[in-house]
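Q: What structure does this chain adopt?
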Amino acid sequence: MKRKNKIFIFIIDVTIIILSFLFTIWLKPASRSIYLPQYLLPFVGFFCLWIVISFVFDKYNFHNRYSLKQYVSPVLKTSITALAAVLLLIILFGLFHYSRLIVLGTILLVTFLELFFSTILYYHRKLIGVLDLPVKFTKHATAIHNGEVDDQEIIQYTFPDLDDKKDSIKEALYSKYLSHSEELLQLIASKINLNGIHSNKSLILNTHTIYNIENIDPESQQLFINLHKTNDIRRINQFFIQANNNLQFGGYFVGCVETINEKYRKFKQRYPIIVFHILYGINFIYTRVFPKMPILKEIYFAVTKGSNRALSKAEVLGRLSYCGLNIISDKDINNLLYFIVQKVKKPSEYEFPSYGHLIKLQRVGKEGKLIFIYKLRTMHPYSEYIQDYVYSTGGGTIDGDGFMNDFRIAGWGKFMRKLWIDELPMFINLLRSDIKFVGIRPLSCHKYCLYSEKMRKMRAEFKPGLIPPFYADLPKNFEELEESEYNYLMKYKKNPIKTDFNYFFKVWYNIIFKGARSK
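A:
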């Protein structure tokens, strides 16, 4: 639905630009047959420039905007930037022969019509209730602003033992459904009180289609086990969301997936080294890259029906968390990764999963406001939803600026981070004044919660930056990282310009001569 709305708004914008240009041509009191061919090519250049700037300021995305200012601000930013760019081109190339009525008139008319359309759209969405601010978002933002943020509370649900243990699912699992896999049984029994799970409220299937679970009564199940690997499910999120809907709060979902690491190992064992590299490369492109590319993914799903897709552990666990399922445990059993998750909430409608190559990540900005930072994706898709899981399973170890042994980072992502390629899109945030050039790193809500209350409040006083003090001080652990940021902020309070100037050159000295790199 969001994508359709963006396309609709984009079409409206294109129509407004073209009509505005034709109207200003019509206003010119000379022969239109002369002006139209003369200005057609420059208009194409202006049109492309306008569209690019519109995407930079995210003008076509009205999702998660709740005030009239948020609706009209991208329009004004686009118009001012486009006007400045056009005037600069006219001065640089001496294009003073172009009509001011046609050039400036087109820009002004487009701006007026877009402001009018944005205002109408705002009041229309407000009237139908789309702009009602989600309670979850409001509470979260307020807590951050007050410096009282804590990680999202996960309510621990347990099902008490049944009066008659014969009614539990335990015996059926051991004697029938999972008798072939003792290791899987041990995993489930160690994490779930099977004596509290009623057999009539349990579902054990081997399915890859959502049709087998979508007609089940909502919130009727305490346990759902799917023995078919997730790789063959065409619409994974819809399947997980339906599983969430079928479960009672505190209910468990058990499933499995063949990870890309396991597929890599199988290919390597099966073929000679040269053949392995060729065949695995082809398979990776077809089952991993194709499903994520426009047009190509349509071909892939038409041919394969979505089966045997290459999935990473981070992506599957991230999708589960995104769909409201808390990760209890995961374990490799018989060449498959089995996971146990628990329903702790309903799937959120206000999240932005990082599936594409250019992503925007929710971060805590000045005054605790939630902003979106643009980056090139270096982690597996949906990785941002399991940051707390990585922190907890990694023993809570933070190595300077990042988590140790973070399996969410892809191999090519490590290379991009070493050269800071992933952070190039943050210049968009710099242009939009979300961040400044030198400053503390914008943090996710989870990582923000790891800081002391004193540092959270102090951080909220300042705008985050593109180049963090981390690269100047090179802290080795989280405590040193906090101290580094505290020292920078104290110096910045006294002398902002001098502090940023000094830190900028110290950062580049460490990068060039000490080999400081992103993690």
